[in-house]
Amino acid sequence: MFKNLLLRDLRLAYYSSSNFIYIGSFFILVTILIPFVINTETEGLKSVFQGLIWVGLALALLLALDRIFSSDFDDGNLDIILRMEVSYEKIYLSKLLSVWITYCLPIVIIVPLISTAFNLTINETIFVTINLFCGSFGMAATAIGINALLMGLKRMIYLKSIIVIPLYIPFMIFGVEQGSWPVLSALSMIAVVVASFATSYGLRLYGE
Amino acid sequence: MISKIRPAIIEKADGYIPLLLSFTIITFFVGLYFSLIESPADYIQGDSMRIMYIHVPSAWFSLMIYTLIALSSVFWFILRNPLLSLAGRSLAPIGAMFTFLALITGSIWGKPTWGTWWAWDARLTSMLILFFLYLAYILLWHSISNKDNASKIAAALGIIGFINIPIIKFSVDWWNTLHQPATISKLSTPSIDVSMLIPLLIMTLAFGLFLLSLFIIRIRILSLELRINRKMTY
User: What's the mean pLDDT in B184-209?
Assistant: First the structure.
């Protein structure tokens, strides 16, 4: 059942507008805004890029806030899923994996490919990618938890973003620091656990 | 859920509002007299440090109110008493106001002392984030028309935000620090002179009374609003 849920979400994402091509192009376009707004000769390009990776990831997840559970809730699929006697934890875990694969994995793959264009050395690229890998789980979990609580609110993406962005600040702070992947993993674990409670609460709230 | 409200306790508290308000005004005047005239000017910062008597109480209360919101959310989950969700809802704008006041007075104080209106320092930044946490909570209440659902979601959000505060505090502290460390961390040996401590405590009392009277007024308005809505739907 877990596998079916996961595959269903991934297939839906693949055949809809959250395909990896869309996410990847969106992310690359966000990052190539930097050379246009700052002097490309400076060393600043590198540090701005390291920060903008996280902003791009956050933007990709914020744009997903209108669909993670909301689209299933709107078209009634959520009722069917909840009727299938699956535990909330399994629904949550499959959502976590599918959201991570859909929105975070393309970015984790793209960052090492384009980092040379922003003057990052190989060492720095490895650090940035590991940080991104460790932090993105928590950011995905946060988005899922808040979306589960607010899935009844249609077209309220700004409200959801205002709620989610303060929760992303710790990830941003540690994300740009080299070698802070243990802290990011700890933050991710906290977020994954808290979001599991929030998700099951939200599912129970709207499933009734 | 809403029909379970028994507004008797609110009605009873309502009678005390004039008394509370007059106490608040008297305490404010006494506190302002002590802080502006009686207390000495700081020997380095001069008269500009007198804004501390506004800045520090509002910063304390802004943190305390978020704690109260989180506590009322936790107890809402246990007791399911609609008064508790009303309490959180009526406290949030007051807390946002105190946070805003702390930010504004802090930046006015920062200009002559640090030479800048705003610095990306740990405490300033976490206060700014606290302000946006309040704003998110208020906007959540505002945008859900079914207040039964809103109270369920807002309670969860109050707890999540409260978990987030120490994490933000820790990460922002680690990120950058310029602010002076907390002066009155332990009450036994405060590193502040008594001549400055007394006006500060009076002003804190005045702010507390102000908070209490605003809280009672707001929770009464909100409960009346709920009763009107209930009558209109039936």
Answer: 75
For residues B50-72, average pLDDT:
91
Name the band, by pLDDT with cuts 50, 70 and 90, for residue B6: low
Does A159 contact chain B (CB < 8 Å)? yes
- CB A154, CB A70: distance < 8 Å: yes
- Confirm or reject contact between B132 and chain A (CB < 8 A): yes
- The band of B112, judged by pLDDT with boundaries at 50, 70 and 90, is confident
Residue with more model confidence, B202 or B1: B202
All structural domains of chain B with their residue ranges: 52-182+209-234
In the three-class reduction of DSSP (H, G, I as helix; E, B as strand; rest coil), residue A179 is classed as coil
| CA-based nearest distance B180→chain A, Å | 22
- C-alpha count within 13 angstroms, C-beta hemisphere, residue B135: 17
- Cβ atoms within 10 Å of B61's Cβ, excluding its own: 23
The amino acid at B159: I
pLDDT reading at B31 higher than 70: yes
Instruction: Verify whether the Cβ–Cβ distance B139 to A159 is below 8 Å.
Output: yes
Using CB atoms, which residue from A150, A169, A170 is nearest to B153?
A150
Ramachandran angles phi, psi of B42, nearest 5°: -70, 145
Is residue B146 within 8 A of residue B90, CB to CB? The reply is no
- Interface membership of B152 toward A (CB under 8 Å): yes
Cβ within 8 Å, pair B163-A165: no
Contact state of B136 with A163 under an 8 Å Cβ cutoff = yes
